[in-house]
Amino acid sequence: MATESYHKQMNKKNELKLRELRAELPSFCDRYFRGIEPTTASRTRIAYAIDLKVFFEYVQTQIPRFASRNVFTSDISLLDEITCYDIENYLDYLKVYTNSEGVTYTNDENGLKRKLSAVRSLYRYFYFRHEVSGNPASQVAVPKIHEKAIVRLDENETAELLDTVEYGMGGSDHMQVFHEKNKVRDLALVTLLLGTGIRISECIGLDLTDVDFDNDRIKVTRKGGNEAYVYFGSEVREALMEYFQKRCSLTAASGSENALFLSNRMNRISVRNAEVLVKKYAKAAVSLKKITPHKLRSTYGTQLYKETGDIYLVADVLGHKDVNTTRRHYAAIEEERRRSAKDKVHLRKEE
Q1: Which of 106, 139, 172 is the last residue of a domain?
Q2: Domain limits at 107?
């Protein structure tokens, strides 16, 4: 029997996880999750389920008028009893709170916005279907997000990172033996991320059959499940080809037979392990910057935009559905390009 793709395996795993989470929510939420399934990724629904559980726990434990009833067994009329002031207080509560297990959490602007989005989505779904009489969540202002500087590698730092992956970081004999064992795989993985801008989940989800050396491209599964071809240059080709030859000589564990990148246990390498791998080399090469796989994606996008000046091309290659997402990421570069225009047009010929 053919091995299922990584994307299908993850969808199954996520659906089982979502089923567990839905069992912990009021029963009317089942209709909501079935309704949004065609338009959302499984990971998005999991995030919404987690956030909605926090919301209903807040309603149960922090709003006095609900203390005498079981919020989690209530029907949909519960939503009509919650006011916009309750939701505003909920956002304030989320800044620092301790859950029922005694664990303390904090949320920044992005965390607050994300959790409000889950509540808004729930109300919007039922309000559109006339199952609730109002939509108080829509009356709550979205927390203002303060833009942060985008961290990316400069050209010399990119070269330093790749050199570190290829030649190692020194250390004990054991560390050097470990590096020698994995350097071909690690160099292929990091070079691929830097040379294509694909997401780390897209990278570790690659199968052997997704690599097309005849056309110098890989087939990736984007967020939402869409497939796309991403093309690579000669440096990526060289690193991938060397690893590919080694990979074909390895015997993968059951279920990972077609996986491109393998862990030392011969399973498909996980997102977590790939993140640790990138951070380890980056910390040694560029200690002053906190580099993650996503920062390698930003590095590629920056370089591509500088070379082409085509924001639509960058958006397409990175898999952004909305070009404005790309524009926000590279606004600083656009400002730099606009500034360079000031001396391009002369109103009078110089004597």
Answers
A1: 139
A2: 9-139
Mean pLDDT of each 10-residue bin along the chain, 351 residues long: 74 92 96 94 93 96 95 97 97 91 91 96 97 96 79 91 91 83 96 96 95 96 87 96 95 93 95 95 92 93 88 89 79 65 65 56
Residue whose entry in the numeric block shows the structure tokens 């082409």: 308
Specify the pairing of strand 211-212 against strand 217-221.
Answer: antiparallel
Closest C-alpha among 179, 204, 194, 215 to residue 294? 194
Same domain, 250 and 177: yes
Task: State whether 200 and 283 are in the same domain.
Answer: yes
Residues 110 and 56 in one domain: yes
Q: Helical H runs in the chain?
A: 6-22, 29-36, 42-62, 77-81, 84-94, 109-128, 155-167, 173-196, 200-204, 234-247, 271-285, 293-308, 311-318, 323-329, 331-340
Given CA atoms 71, 72, 75, 80 in this order, what sign does their dihedral have? positive
Asked whether residue 329 is assigned to any structural domain, the reply reads yes
Buried residues in 153-170 as b, exposed as e (16+ CB within 10 A): beeebbebbbebbbebee
Q: Give yes or no: residues 299 and 332 share one domain.
A: yes
Q: Angle at the Cα of 201 (from 294 to 12), degrees rounded to 5?
A: 150
Here the tokens at position 297 are 């994606």
Could you tell me if residue 301 is inside a domain? yes
Is 112 found in the same domain as 169?
Answer: no
Are 206 and 218 in contact, with CB atoms under 8 Å apart?
yes
The string of DSSP letters for 280-329 reads HHHHHH-TTS---HHHHHHHHHHHHHHHH--HHHHHHHHT-SSHHHHHHH
CATH number at residue 71: 1.10.150.130
Instruction: Please tell me the total count of domains within the chain.
Output: 2
How far apart, in whole angstroms, are the C-alpha atoms of residue 324 and residue 335?
15
